[in-house]
């Protein structure tokens, strides 16, 4: 069996005295798409931000493609905190798309996309531009290459943010509620782009979402998060139609009741 692309081992996170994640073990296999669902404040975003190194781990380890993210191993096999250089190298396999896009407002769409390939990967501008345009074409926005983010709709901004993550060719791509800041009529176009990426197969995905129908359609697995723990983890049909724990049953019932038609 091939190595998991992501492996959390007893991962714990505190913000001061507040424990947000409690000894979580979790894996994502190569090419696997995993959706995270769960109540607000249960720790899903923090869980994902640790993988992107946007929050610091308190205890436990995370591996990406068999390499420790937050640690380095010496000759004796002992772990010590990773150097910035190591952190940056391992982290470059991970991409993230945020709820609120996080585009650079003073750069055009194309400049937003080619910035990281040039500054982080050292690509030549010409090559980065060619690749950036190909990816923009993929998300249906080639005609917007030279406009600024303020001139785009929310759905278009999010598609640019997705293109910006994709251009770095991450092994694992995190989506943190990518449609929850959008007007309902703009949700579909973003979900369509995410589904296309999922259908292409090779990128592993971690998708935090409240869109249960979408999770069911795209994810190979759904993990239910509650109170800093993964309470259930299984196929979409097991999780959504055959929940075992009372917490998941309650969540799904509550969730369905608060959904607008
Ligand atoms: N930087 C921070 N400092 C202190 N507490 C934080 C910080 N970030 C998150 N928290 C707390 O950690 C807990 C988990 O938050 P997190 O955003 O991970 O949950 P979530 O499941 O993603 O919620 P939502 O679905 O609302 O986004 C919450 O109690 C939150 O207030």
UniProtKB/TrEMBL annotation:
InterPro entries with a match to the protein in the record: AAA+_ATPase, ABC_ATPase_HisP-typ, ABC_transporter-like_ATP-bd, ABC_transporter-like_CS, Ectoine_EhuA, MetN_ABC_transporter-like, P-loop_NTPase
GO cellular component terms attached to this protein's record: plasma membrane
Gene3D superfamilies in the record: P-loop containing nucleotide triphosphate hydrolases
Main location: membrane
Pfam families, A to Z: ABC_tran
Recorded topology in the membrane: Peripheral membrane protein
Annotated GO MF terms: ABC-type amino acid transporter activity; ATP binding; ATP hydrolysis activity
Domain ABC transporter: residue ranges: 6-252
Alphabetically ordered keywords of this record: Amino-acid transport, ATP-binding, Cell membrane, Membrane, Nucleotide-binding, Transport
Localization per Swiss-Prot or TrEMBL: Cell membrane
Family of the protein in this entry: Belongs to the ABC transporter superfamily.
Protein name: Probable amino-acid ABC transporter ATP-binding protein y4tH
